[in-house]
Design a protein that fits this description.
Largest sheet: 7 strands, mixed
Structural class: alpha/beta
Order of helices and strands: EHHEHEHHEHEHEHHEEHHHEEHEEEH
Number of strands: 13
Strand content: 15-25%
Strand order of the largest sheet: 2-8-7-6-5-3-4
Length: about 350
């Protein structure tokens, strides 16, 4: 049985073209700055996002934390949305690495208003740390994009306060695809941007941090401090170059299949779909008796690997929040298999399926 993995768009193995490029990559010692493939990747990434310079880093979390480490003096404060990746999924790294305090804003789907931002900005005084950075996320990890108008509102305020803006753009090319603009259109509203090569773009490893030349020079030193100075990393950059130059054009297909999956799920009794606009599908299921693990096992028995859903207790019933993610290796055949598995699992569950049957 073929296994279909929809836990994330980070599960994608490299394409054969990427594997060949990695095997044949021209390399050097990147700490000395003489790996030609790394240098080419960094120049390409900076140009695509309209920035002066770029720096290759091992992961998205590394890139975000390196940005905070570079922008923010210790003991200052970073303002960002309460559901963003930096807060929810980066293990509290900002307090450990940068020594900064984070101050969150209620931000449904990554959107917070200028008014909410203004009341949280602070100058240094006897009792308060000064704000040193504002962080945005686009596309948001809850599966939706943030409009350019919202970003402009934030940018106008930060200009008045002389504050930099960092963008967690892990899926910036998904955002650009959904918004109908270029990644550079999004990036120009921020001072620095991190984006992933291994989310959606199919590269096996790596992210880029882009920004002004002096910022990236300082980030290069801080990357060394964080242990991110790699040697013949051009082997990884070779796949990243293909990811960056070819795969953004393919993301619209991932989005299309996600919308088709949303439509099919919405037709299943008991399922409530949270409409998105990138390659993520979020939906809710209120379970009478089934455990989350039973449902996960039911999908696995049909060759579909999913994450454990988040669980909440509502009026004595369990609400399960699922996330499915389409990606390069989910074609039409795989999408149809996912839809059929959903129809079977959830309809049998509503009839009393206990997760133990062979399905």
């Amino acid at each position: 049985m073929q296994t279909i993995d929809i836990r994330s768009d980070t599960v994608t193995g490299p394409t054969e073209k990427m594997r060949k490029a990695m095997a044949e990559a021209e390399v050097g010692d990147d700490v000395y700055g003489d790996d030609p493939t790394i240098n080419r990747l960094e120049k390409t990434g900076a140009k695509l996002l309209g920035k002066e310079a770029a720096l290759f880093v091992p992961s998205g979390t590394f890139g975000n934390q390196l940005a905070l480490f570079t922008h923010c003096p210790r003991g200052t404060e970073v303002v960002l949305g309460e559901e963003c990746h930096i807060i929810q999924h980066e293990a509290g790294a900002a307090s450990i690495i940068s020594g900064v305090q984070t101050r969150t804003i209620p931000a449904p789907d990554g959107v917070f208003t200028g008014q909410e931002l203004l009341i949280r900005l602070r100058k240094r005084d006897l009792h308060a740390p000064p704000t040193s950075l504002i962080c945005l996320e686009n596309a948001h990890s809850m599966g939706k994009t943030v409009s350019l108008a919202v970003m402009d509102e934030v940018r106008n305020i930060t200009n008045e306060w002389n504050l930099p803006v960092h963008l967690d753009g892990a899926r910036i090319f998904n955002a650009a695809t959904a918004l109908g603009c270029s990644a550079a259109d999004i990036a120009k509203r921020c001072d620095s941007v991190m984006f992933c090569l291994s989310k959606g773009l199919c590269a096996p490893v790596g992210s880029l941090l882009v920004g002004g030349k002096s910022f990236i020079e300082e980030a290069r030193l801080k990357r060394k401090i964080m242990g991110g100075g790699m040697r013949q990393a051009g082997i990884l950059a070779a796949a990243g170059l293909i990811a960056l130059t070819e795969h953004p054009l393919l993301l619209a297909d991932d989005h299309k299949r996600a919308r088709e999956l949303e439509k099919a799920l919405a037709e299943i009794p008991g399922i409530s779909v949270d409409e998105g606009n990138i390659n993520m599908v979020f939906f809710r299921w209120v379970a009478e008796k089934e455990s989350a693990r039973a449902l996960v096992n039911a999908f696995r028995s049909r060759g579909i690997i999913i994450n454990d859903p988040e669980q909440k207790i509502l009026n004595g019933k369990t609400e399960l929040l699922f996330r499915f993610v389409t990606h390069h290796w989910i074609g039409d055949k795989e999408a149809e298999a996912i839809i059929e598995a959903c129809r079977f699992v959830f309809r049998h569950s509503s009839a009393g399926f206990d997760g133990s049957a062979k399905v």
